[in-house]
Each structure stands twice: as structure tokens, then as C-alpha cells.
Design goal:
- By secondary structure, this protein is α/β, with parallel strands linked by helices.
- The chain has one domain: NAD(P)-binding Rossmann-like Domain (Rossmann fold), CATH 3.40.50.
- The chain has nine helices and seven strands, in the order βαβαβαβαβαβαααβα.
- Helix 3 runs parallel beside helix 4 and helix 4 runs parallel beside helix 5.
- The termini are far apart.
- The model has no long low-confidence stretch (mean pLDDT 94).
- The structure holds NADP nicotinamide-adenine-dinucleotide phosphate.
């Protein structure tokens, strides 16, 4: 509960499962009321129900229509109508832009990544910031990627958009700091998604080789970082970046030989 009696609240995008749901659960565990965003409205409602059942906080799901500013305004109007001014926005959803070969990619597909990761994230942030300004404080957290700093093949739109997010977050920190609004980025490396776990080469070879600490992130590792940056725990931190990548960014190349020697 805040000083003015308003319940603390967080909105997490792309939060029906995986990383986003873990972030939503992390805030619920701390007593926040939770708003879940998803392109699939029914799944958002179901995820919100799970949060309420498990943590006893209020939770509600919203269907997010990517790039539709009226939809963005309607979501925030509804949050306001229920008596909240949002405390924390976590922008987790992303267009992953996988397999976009730079010489061949359709420019529409390329731009779609930017419309989601930059345009829509900007709309969501600005609408949240309008409530946070009124409240006199707030926190925006972007889940970007360590590929904002070191890129992977055939993902020009994704990596460059994740990189642009770093500057967008700094812009918000500078533009809105005077209103008590902070903006920060989490930079995951690899996360143990089902997609990742189902590939035996990943678990056998990538785990020991790709990170100095021989492990990659659990969903909860990203959620803990989002909680830190999205709460008063980090009240003096803004315009900053926190890598949660097992040290991938620190090493020049993966240590390919390690597993070969051990086999
Ligand atoms: N997985 C990794 O190894 C890794 C590494 C570095 C950074 N990250 C970042 O961490 C965050 C979570 O990663 P994740 O692997 O858990 O992601 P994910 O499950 O693949 O995607 C997160 C959510 O984004 C939404 N989404 C997916 N494709 C979209 C599209 N084309 N347009 C709009 N929304 C879309 C989906 O939400 P709805 O379907 O519910 O709308 C999805 O649940 C992302 O921002 C990702 O870029 C992940």
C-alpha cells in the first residue's frame, strides 16, 4: 500500500507464460496487484486468475493489440478507472525477428519488429508515464537482450531494435526523471525456455561453453532483476543496464575447448 492508500500495481507485457509470467509472479509475491498483457485476451485472463489464486492479490488480464494506440489508451484508462495509477511497467513482450536473412528479408517483416519493439513499447511507456507523473513516481523496466550489445546472425531487426531500446530507456530516464519516473533495462543472455531446453546440443554443449559461470538464466533470474529495477530497491538507479547473462558479454569468445577436453 502506498502513502496515499493506493495499492501498488505492475503491468507486465507478454506475461501468460515463461519469463513474463515469472516477472508477474515476482511482483505478486511482494504484494503488488498485477496486470497481465497478451495478444491472447483469454490467456491473459487465465494467467491473471492463476496469480490471484496463488498470491491472493488482485490481477487482471488485458488483450494487447500491438501498435494500436487506442487499445493502449483503453488499457490504461481501465487501470485508472479501477482506482490505480500504475507503479511499474515491465516491457517483456518482443517480436523476436528470428531467421531474417539481411539480404532477403521482406522490409515489412523487418519493420514489424520495430513497430512492436520500439513503436508499441514507446506507446505503452508514454501512457504509463502519464499516470506515474500524476503519482509523482514510477518505474519502467525493459527486458531487452545482451544482443543489444553483441549481435547474432540473421537478426538485424531484432538486435538493432533491442539496442535502440537502450537509448529509448535512457531518453525516458532523462525526460521523465524530474517527475520521479525511472527507466532501466534488463539484458538477458540465454534463458532456459522450453525452446532452448528441448535441444540436447544446447544443454550438453552450450551450457558449459557459452558462459563463464557454465549456466544460463532461469526465468526467476530475469524476474529478480526486473523486481530490483522496478521497485524501490533501486530507487537511485535510472538510465542503467543490468546484464543477466552468466557473463557472456564479458568473454570474447565461447570457450569451445572446455567440453571437447572433458568428453
Ligand atoms: N529467451 C531468451 O533466451 C532471451 C534472450 C535474450 C533476451 N530475451 C528477451 O526476454 C524477453 C522474454 O523472452 P522469452 O524467450 O521468454 O520470449 P517469448 O516467450 O518468445 O516472448 C515473450 C512474449 O512476447 C510476445 N510476443 C512474441 N512474439 C511476438 C510478436 N511477434 N509480436 C508481439 N508480441 C510477441 C508473446 O506474448 P503474447 O503471445 O502473450 O502476446 C510472448 O509470450 C523478450 O523480450 C526477449 O527478447 C530472451
Amino acid at each position: 500500500m502506498t502513502a496515499n492508500g493506493m495499492k501498488k500495481s505492475v503491468l507486465v507485457t507478454g506475461a501468460t507464460g515463461g519469463t513474463g509470467f515469472a516477472i508477474a509472479r515476482r511482483f505478486a509475491r511482494e504484494g503488488y496487484d498485477v496486470f497481465i498483457g497478451s495478444r491472447r485476451g483469454a490467456d491473459a485472463t487465465a494467467a491473471a486468475q492463476k496469480i490471484t489464486d496463488h498470491y491472493g492479490v488482485f490481477a487482471k488480464g488485458y488483450e494487447t493489440k500491438i501498435g494500436d494506440e487506442e487499445n493502449v489508451k483503453a488499457i490504461f484508462a481501465d487501470i485508472r478507472a479501477m482506482g490505480y495509477l500504475l507503479d511499474t511497467l515491465v516491457l517483456n513482450a518482443a517480436n523476436l525477428g528470428i531467421g531474417q536473412v539481411s539480404l532477403d528479408v521482406d522490409i515489412k517483416d523487418f519493420m514489424e519488429v520495430y513497430h512492436t519493439n520500439i513503436g508499441w513499447n514507446f506507446m505503452m511507456s508514454r501512457e504509463a508515464a502519464r499516470q506515474m507523473k500524476e503519482k509523482g513516481k514510477g518505474a519502467i523496466v525493459f527486458i531487452t537482450s545482451n544482443s543489444a550489445l553483441r549481435v547474432t546472425e540473421n537478426r538485424c531487426a531484432y538486435c538493432s531494435s533491442k539496442s535502440a531500446i537502450l537509448a529509448m530507456s535512457k531518453s525516458f530516464a532523462v525526460d521523465w526523471g524530474k517527475y520521479g519516473i525511472r527507466s532501466n533495462c534488463v539484458l538477458p543472455g540465454m534463458i532456459k525456455t522450453e525452446r532452448w531446453q528441448s535441444n540436447v546440443n544446447n544443454t550438453k554443449y552450450c551450457l558449459p561453453n557459452y558462459t563463464p559461470i557454465h549456466d544460463i538464466a532461469e526465468f526467476e533470474d530475469i524476474a529478480n532483476a526486473a523486481w530490483y529495477l522496478g521497485s524501490d530497491q533501486s530507487r537511485n538507479t535510472t538510465g542503467a543496464e543490468l546484464a543477466v547473462d552468466g557473463g557472456m558479454l564479458a568473454q570474447l569468445t565461447p570457450n569451445i575447448n572446455r567440453t571437447l577436453w572433458e568428453d
